[in-house]
Amino acid sequence: MSIKTFSGLILVIVLTGACSKNDNVKISGSYPSGAGEYLQLEMLNITATQFIDSARISKKGTFKFTVELDNPELLLVKNNKNQHINVLAFPGDDITLTVNDTTFRSGYGIAGSEESEKIRGLVEKIEKTRMQLDPIVTALDALDDQEGPEADKLIAEYVRIFQEQKKSTIHFIVQNISSLSSVYALYQRISPDIYVLNDLKDLQYFKIVSDSVSVRYPGSTLVMSLMQDVKKRFDEYNTMITLNEISKTNQVETGLIDLKIEDDEGMERSLKALEGKVVLLNFWASWNSDSRDVNRQYMKTWEEYHSRGFEVYSVSLDSDRTRWKSAIYFEQYPWIDVCELTYPYSYAATIYNVTSIPANYLIDREGNVVAKNIPGNRLSTWLDNLL
Question: What is the pTM of this model?
Answer without folding.
Answer: 0.62
